[in-house]
Amino acid sequence: MTGYKHAEGEFQGKNDTRIYFQSWKPLKPKASVIIVHGVGEHSGRYMNLINKMDGKSISFYAADHRGHGKSGGKKGHTDFFMDYIHDLKLLVNIVKNENSGLPVFLLGHSMGGTIACRYALTYQDDLSGLVLSGAGVKPIINKSDFFISAAKGISGLLPRLSISNGLIVEDLTHDEEVIRDYRADKLNHDRVTLRFSVEFLKNGEECINRAEELTLPLLLIHGGQDRICDVKGSQLIYERSSSIDKQIEIFEGLFHETMNEEGKMKETPLNTVSKWITSMISKVKAAAATPATAPVVEKKEPVVQQASPAVKKPAAKKPAAKKAAAKKPAAKKPAAKKPAAKKPAAKKPAAKKPAAKKPAAKKPAAKKPAAKKPAAKKPAAKKPAAKKAVKK
Asked: Which of 45, 111, 345, 372 could form a disulfide with 39 if both were Cys (CB 3.0 to 4.6 A apart)?
C-alpha cells in the first residue's frame, strides 16, 4: 500500500454522536470513493478493494457508523435510520472539501448498501456514481412473521432493547481465514436493537419502492449464493432504477462478501468494481469537456441530444402558441364588422353585443389548452429516459 497516505479523524454526527473515520489518499487523486460498511462490522474491513486500486490515483474514505467500530453510540442502535444519512452527509462534505471539484462515488455493502441507496435518493447530486455490494434492501430474516410483528410492536415501548443480529459468520465467505479474522476482531459485534431492526427493514423497502428516482450511474454486485441479503433486492433496484448507465453482476457460487471470497474467487468482483469506477472517472471528465467539444466527443452526443430536445421542443411550440394568439386578434376583426349590427342602433342591442364580446373572455380559456400542451409533453420527455434505462 505504498501509494496511499493513511489518516484518521473524528467529527460530531447527529445528536453530537462521535463518528470515527479514516482515509487512504494518493499523492494526486483523480476521484474519491466513500465506503459504507455493513451491520456489526467497521470501516477497516475493505482493504482488499483499497489495495486492489492502489496506483489508480483514487482516495478512499470510510467511517464507522454510530454504534459500530470506534464511533460512539449504543451498539447496533439508531433512533432513526436517517441519522446514518445525516452522518454520511457530513463525511461527504469533508471529502468534497479535501478533494475540491473531483468526482465522488459511494460504495455501500450489505446494510451499508441500504444506507448508500437511501443517501442517493436524498442527495443524488452529491455523487458521480453509486456502487451497491450485496445490498441489504431485502435481508433474509431467519425469524417468523410473528416475531417480526411482535418486534415492531415492542420497539415503540423498548426501542433500545438489544437482540442478536442473527448473522451467521460462515455465510459471509468461503474463506476460512476471513471468518477467523472476523471472529477475532474486537471491533465487530452481533448486537442490534429493536428500533434499529424496524428502521432497517422499513428503509430497505423504501429504497426498492423509490428506485425509479435513481438516475445516476449505478453498479450492483451480488453473490449468487448470498444467504444474508436476498439477491432479488439488487435485481429490483436494477430493474426499477431510471439510470441510463447501469450494470448488475451476479457472481454464481459466491457468498455475501464477494470481495472477501476465497482465493481467486474474489478477483472477478474486485476487478468489476475497479474497472467500473475507473471508467466512470473517464466519463465524468469527458462530460466536463462536453460543452467545449460536444460535436467531437461522440460518446457524449446522446447525453446532449437527450437534454436538448427536452428544452427545444417546448420552445418550438411556444412560437406556435404565439401564432394562435396572432390569429385570435384576426378573429376580433369580425368584431369590428359589427357596424352591421349598428343598424339596430335604435334598439340598442349594442349593449347586448358587448355581452357577445364575452367570447373574448373565452379566448383566454382557449389559451389554457395551449399551456397544457407543453405540460403534456413533459411526461413524454420522461418516457424515453425510462426506456433507455431498462434497455441498458
From this structure: 111
CA atoms within 13 A on the CB side of 142: 8
Do residues 12 and 45 lie in contact, with contact meaning Cβ atoms separated by under 8 Å? no
Alpha helices in the chain (DSSP H): 47-52, 82-98, 111-122, 145-155, 176-184, 194-209, 231-240, 267-293, 301-336, 339-342, 352-356, 358-391
Radius of gyration, alpha carbons of the chain: 29
CA 210 to the chain's CA centroid: 9
Global confidence as pTM? 0.74
* 29 CB neighbour count, 10 Å cutoff: 17
C-alpha cell at 263: 482465493
User: Rounded CA gap, 100 and 123, in Å?
Assistant: 17
CB atoms within 10 A of CB 202: 11
CB 115 within 8 A of CB 136: no
Q: Cα–Cα distance between 95 and 75 in angstroms, integer?
A: 26
Is residue 334 within a helix (H) or strand (E), and if so which, with residue range? helix 301-336
Residue type, 159: P
Smallest CA-to-CA distance from 173 within 269, 275, 66 is with 269
| Integer CA distances (angstroms), 348 to 352, 359, 374, in order | 8, 20, 44
Residue 391 dihedral angles phi and psi, to the nearest 5°: -65, -40
CA-to-CA dists, residue 82 to 45, 86, 119, 136, 166, angstroms = 24, 6, 9, 16, 23
User: pLDDT of 188-227, one tens digit each?
Assistant: 999 999 999 999 999 999 999 999 999 999 999 999 999 9
For residue 4, the number of C-alpha atoms closer than 13 Å in the C-beta half-sphere is 20
Q: Which of 138, 65, 110 is nearest to 260 (CA)?
A: 110
The count of residues in the chain is 392
Dihedral sign, Cα of residue 220, residue 224, residue 228, residue 231:
positive
Tell how strand 31-36 and strand 58-63 pair up. Answer: parallel
The set of catalytic residues is: 110, 226, 256
Weakly modelled stretches of the chain, pLDDT under 50: 293-392
Helices marked H in 144-230: 145-155, 176-184, 194-209
Q: What is the DSSP letter of 142?
A: -
